[in-house]
Amino acid sequence: MKAILAAAFGVLAIGAAQAQTVKVGVTVSTTGPAASLGIPEANSAKMLNGTVGGVPLDIVILDDASDPTKAVANSRKLLADEKVDVLVGSSTTPGSIALIEVASENKVAMISLAGSSAVTSPMDEKRRWVFKAPQNDALMAEAIGDHMKAAGIKSVGFIGFSDAYGDGWLAVLKPVLAARDIKLTDSERYARNDTSVTGPILKIMASKPDAVLIAGAGTPAALPQKTLKERGYAGKIYQTHGAANSDFLRVGGKDLEGTILPVGPVLVASQLPDANPIKKAGVEYATKYEALYGPGSVSTFGAHMNDALALIRAAVPSAEKVAKPGTPEFRIALRDALEGLKNVVYSQGIVTMSKDDHVGQDNRARVLVTVADGTWKLVGNGM
Question: Quick one: average pLDDT of 238-261?
Fold first, then answer.
């Protein structure tokens, strides 16, 4: 009997030592103009729901319809009704910026899936609760600037979203061009839900730039490029990492051929050299995603969700030493653990956070690709 009781106690002790379930609240844009971003993000969250790397995650997903106000309402619902330990979202820069107030007010860590550096900088008392999975615009802009310089481009026209995403890209682009003696001939804006950009494109073409950079995201990023082609523009066209998904390729079609853009390595993971330290994680994610959602379906946006969850998984063990999931103390400990992460390898980079840097990436988090025969092709050696 004593032996049986001892064995039973041992089983209970083992169960108690195991990690407890961490509840993750997700708000992404599975409908609206940013749906081509939010759908793969939601797909990845569904795919990874459950135990991730030994850490049990219960992921609750809500659609914010590409609306920052809805993203805020979702996050408040997730905190009040679901008692989540951490927030992930939203898909867009405006939505993510709107969530900063919620995260700081409730003292809960938030991991954004939007690209703009404005989400996490400048660091302040509110942004100390906010982290980001995607690459900063500045990191990607440097890659574009280097390619333009090497290609002999002397002048560039710009068209970007008329929101925080476009603002952020124009702000980081100007010093990149100035440092390389490249002239910005004109800058124009358009809304995510616009159906025509003929006027802004004609203004850009009238300035006669050698190249045009389009700062859009998802399928709406294809509209300016299609218009440029329809109007006979023959210069080089660049896009940002916000455009990197299969729906963008589908909508843009042949008009996208030859486009250059910086992306996370996951998009061309199989093309990376074996010596690239990110290749394994990228291939594993892409293989799993495409097995569920079809060949060619992988995108950097779904990978951002994968990487946000990888950050959470890496931070949980340290946080659990301080408090149990489901408590205010655990939320604070998880924020602290995220800020202390070192050398975390995920599908799009290697991350080392600090109190001043809540993205934690370096040049290994980007590669340049071109569109060739309707698909992504690595430019250079990917190292």
Answer: 94
Side by side, which strands form the sheet with 260-263? 183-190, 155-161, 211-215, 236-239, 260-263, 367-372, 375-379
Six-digit token string for 78: 């997730």
Upstream peptide bond of 277 is cis (omega within 30 degrees of 0): no
pLDDT band at 8 (very low <50, low <70, confident <90, very high): very low
CA–CA gap between residue 355 and residue 340 (Å, rounded):
8
Torsion of CA 299, 133, 220, 148, to 10 degrees: -90
**Radius of gyration over alpha carbons of the chain, in Å?**
22
Q: Strand, coil or helix: what is 251?
A: helix
Between the alpha carbon of residue 87 and those of residues 9, 46, 62, 237, 307, the distances in Å are: 36, 15, 11, 36, 14
Q: What is the arithmetic mean of pLDDT over 262-291?
A: 95
Residues 6+ apart with CB under 8 A from 16: none
Residue type for position 277: P
Q: Give the separation between CA 119 and CA 238, rounded to whole angstroms.
A: 23
Question: What domains sit in the chain, N to C, each tagged with a CATH number?
Answer: 2-135+287-361 (3.40.50.2300), 137-263 (3.40.50.2300)
Amino acid 133: pLDDT = 97
Report the b/e string of 87-96 with b at 16+ CB within 10 A. bbbbbbbbbb
DSSP code for 268: G
In which band, very low, low, confident or very high, does the pLDDT at 14 lie, cut at 50, 70 and 90? very low
Per-residue pLDDT at 381: 61
Q: For helices 328-339 and 300-320, what crossing angle results, to 10°? A: 110
Cβ distance 60 to 84 under 8 Å? Answer: yes
Cα 96 to Cα 109: distance, rounded to the nearest angstrom: 13
Q: Is a pLDDT exceeding 80 seen at residue 3?
A: no
d(CA 224, CA 121) in angstroms, rounded, equals 29
pTM for the model: 0.85
DSSP state of 354: B
Give the mean model confidence (pLDDT) for residues 126-143.
96
Average pLDDT for the chain: 93
- Region 350-372: mean pLDDT is 96
Tell me the one-letter amino acid at 237.
I
CA dist list (Å): 116 to 132, 139, 260: 9, 11, 19
